[in-house]
DNA sequence: TTGAAAGCGCTAACAG
DNA sequence: CTGTTAGCGCTTTCAA
């Protein structure tokens, strides 16, 4: 009778803790404890159970254990975009530490949409994940959903695109400083009319890089106005970018995100704008191709992998000691300017 | 008394179906059915319950419903690599259809490791996901784990890097043809000694692109030997690539994956090999930067987003009618060569 | 060192 | 149309 039960289980491929218990003539709780390496089970019994489990590829039902233990051994990662070298590398960093901890990583894409970010965070509230790592969507300019999330005390760490006004654990780069130094670098190389090219600018969202840009200009008594800002909303804005470049005779440009390198290089080629002779170019970007572009591109490359690692480590710290309501800290990772041909001094 | 129970629930932020039931003085099953929009509940009751649920941001516990219904409303996606434009776009395609279907997407990275792929698939067997979308790791050259997976009857669709020897639902590009045509293109442009640059070659893994390459050479009575194959295992092989290029005087090269474009361009620059005059270059690759490289790069760009969509649609078809054990089909998506400067005729 | 039993939140018979 | 109830597979007291 027991035999036939087991056969049925294997046929249905539904091997559970009970299958093992029956097969080995022990109780389910013994099996459970053995599988969780509890100290109250004898080595002998453990070995027997583990051997059986391994043989039949037992793997616990995550929904059952999640329901019972209120722990999912899963963290949720919300990013605005894949297809972006920076976020890709961050994910790798996160993965590498999650794996060591035996956690699963659930990746969600907000696609820069506030609406979607909202939905995702809402679902997290029901306990699908033990902790959250999030970088905000560009569209996000209101933060009630974030506050609601934090109220639920789900361990959360923000990285890169963070809600400045909210007190929370955050991991960022020294964006203000980088924006400032990037601009200073262009100025040092002789630029006097510098554009700042950004992607889908939102007035409401604080932009440290841009602040740094503005400060550098002002410090050097260079005028800053809306003219210096080129806001690239989508591929249609290629013409607007083209016009801006031909109208204003910029001699330097800071590209704030890697997606905009291609259109900028394309337009310069088309308009026969010589980089760096006529226009010096510097970009925040992470792809290795920067080193083989013509001219090679001066970049600010973030420690993306490290940011993933740091964020994840910080999150696990919170998950592991939830009562530690210490003052939330903001970790700042440094990144550096890598000078290449596109900002070489020519005049 | 009821009041205080509710207060407690809201304090603990644990709003469940029972909270709602008590608050509204109905039974849990009524609530459950109402939330699932069952026809057996009156509109009036539904409205009442939905209103309450919305007000208090109720969101069902995925572990409870997963356990009970044996459905997780989640699909698992296994890819070998992020930071690769192709897979990034595939993910977007998958996401877009999963979202429409109300499914979650669990993304796993195998990092090209067989070991990791094995672990991931093993965990899927316990029912964490309702279906699986997978592209194999480069290291994978044995397929028992795949067969075991398929035996469990978990709906699975393979894409791009597929197990050729196994009968299953697959979505691919016309790789053999593309390898063939890519090579033919180089030959037409005048190349007579063509290299094939690939990433971590495994003899055991069938490689349709390479087969196409070989066929094109043989058809043209050009000799094919191991010399034509440059196997790039890791960044250290940069020197090997350099040597191969300077020793063998290739006049054409097929790059089989986008990661290798940067090293190739870098080395050509360093060795002052003129593209396309001395060496014509063509790459399988998906990044937009191909259009601004110098010279612009002839590419074979896959319909990556569409591949994600197609795979997902195909998977949901299987999930929705599991008993449909029809003959598994292989969908072939076409992609085209986009000719640019790097393969222009010069001699 | 082991086992019995309760119950996590939800769904789905089945009964009313 | 609504309610009662029995589990899903697992963990975790508590008792033996």
UniProtKB/TrEMBL annotation, chains A, B:
Residues 15-69 form the HTH lacI-type domain. The keyword DNA-binding applies. It holds the Pfam family LacI. This is LacI family DNA-binding transcriptional regulator. SUPFAM superfamilies: lambda repressor-like DNA-binding domains, Periplasmic binding protein-like I. It comes from the Bacteria. Keywords: DNA-binding, Transcription, Transcription regulation.
